[in-house]
Amino acid sequence: MTSSHQHPDNGSDHGSEHHPTPEALAHVHAHAHGPAAPVSQHLRKVIAAVLIPFATAVVVGLAVLWPGGAPAHERTGVGFDRQTESGRVVKVERVDCKDVNAAQVPPTGDTTTPQGREAVNAQQGDCERATIEVTSGEHQGRRFTEIVQPDAPRQLEEGQGVVVAYAPDAPEDLQYSVTDVDRKFPLLLLAVIFALAVVAVGRMRGVMALIALATSFVFLTFFILPAILQGSNPLIVAVVGSSAIMLVALYLSHGLSARTSVAVLGTLISLLLIGLLGSLFIGWARLSGNTDDYTGLIHGLYPNIDMSGLLLAGVIIGSLGVLDDVTVTQTSAVWELHQADPKMGPRALYRAGIRIGRDHIASVVNTLVLAYAGAALPLLLLFSIAQSSVGTVANSELVAQEIVRTLVGSIGLVASVPVTTGLAALVVSADRPCGGAGAPPRQNDAATPPEGGGARRNPR
């Protein structure tokens, strides 16, 4: 006799038995990306029929657009486009600012303006005269002096590593100047600590995640950036490059499984939505993408680059990392819910998964907004100092492009939750593995003795 609480797996959603327990919800919401249950041969073929053409198109796109390196150009000596070498501070001595700043305009005494304060500081107090030795390049061993004002944001210390700019066309005693400090060691140490933490907690999965991260940097450095500099369409390059990063990163980090494949499909659909919305609103808002010194320098060096397309490419690439997390988590949630209660149909799985997704949406959208606001904090401070209205601030292109970037990316992230949850619910419900961890238990196995002759019901 069959219990009245058992329902066929037909997608119906009546009865409390289709609502997972709080423990099950807590389990899947904790990003439980454990091994997926095996799926049927038929379902693997269906997923492969979708993903193999997509992966083939990505490989073809990489082959066609692969740049073979960034194009050569003559250095302008402006900003980042300067020849630099390594250097080291060998001596620092204090000197009177009047002696080393004698050629400057005498102070006016008016300290109410930035120019007046700088003029006064240049004539008062103790300055530092640093002797710098060039430690790389053709002039290795040459020394020059650098005067550091008392109010300079960057002070130099003896033994400190520095980055020096080289201007070959300048007089010999003015060819070198300090442009930055050498911070490679602390950055490298921080990267090592990060890698050790990931491996210690994630173990083998952490190792694979680091390999995926390194692969992402390879695609970014050797494909996306040089291809854009070569004049390829930034949007097409970003789509192909992001798709390649997505395929490699997801399958390396989470394994070659149907669950990962569903996350890949959900991420792809969301990226397409972000690309369409971004293209529409960047064009509608007439955002040029040329808003600061860096983009202006890029446009000056490579006038053929589509700067608005470059802005859209940045939106797509910037959204990819968060999209991966959302789609993998939602897919894992649906898979775990199905394993916890194999009788749940696709509708019940979707409703349970979307309840988890709502919490994810709230946190992810807030993450994106705060990330972009933090990056633009100095700019927002300038508008605050100028006492500009909210409408004036939002209408400026500098802020408008960040608003479009944030909202388009957030719409794609929000859409990825129902899209991925629906795909996962349909796939896992359509699966009928013969045995395996994900198969529904036989209804009367517990009541049938091992050697009994009673008839058993075959599982569905």
* Overall geometry: elongated
Largest sheet, in brief, is: 5 strands, antiparallel
Measured as a percent range, the helix fraction is: 55-70%
Report the span from N to C terminus.
17 Å
By secondary-structure content and strand pairing, the structural class works out as alpha+beta
**How many β-strands, per DSSP?**
5
Residue-averaged pLDDT, rounded? 76
Strand content: 5-15%
Per DSSP, the total helix count is 13
- As residue ranges, the low-confidence spans are 1-38, 434-460
> Within the largest sheet, what's the order of strands?
3-2-1-4-5
* Element-level helix/strand string: HHEHHEEEEHHHHHHHHH
Radius of gyration, in angstroms, nearest whole number = 30 Å
Write the layout of secondary structure elements.
Blueprint: H1 22-29, H2 41-65, E1 83-96, H3 97-100, H4 114-123, E2 126-134, E3 143-148, E4 161-166, E5 176-181, H5 184-229, H6 234-254, H7 258-284, H8 293-301, H9 307-340, H10 346-375, H11 377-385, H12 390-395, H13 397-430
Antiparallel strand pairs: 1-2, 1-4, 2-3, 4-5
Helix pairs in contact: 1-9, 2-6, 2-7, 5-6, 6-7, 6-9, 7-9, 7-13, 9-10, 9-13, 10-13
Description:
This protein is α+β, with helices and mostly antiparallel strands. It is 57% helix and 9% strand. The chain has helices at residues 22-29, 41-65, 97-100, 114-123, 184-229, 234-254, 258-284, 293-301, 307-340, 346-375, 377-385, 390-395, 397-430, and strands at residues 83-96, 126-134, 143-148, 161-166, 176-181. It has a 5-stranded antiparallel beta sheet. The protein is elongated and about 85 Å long.
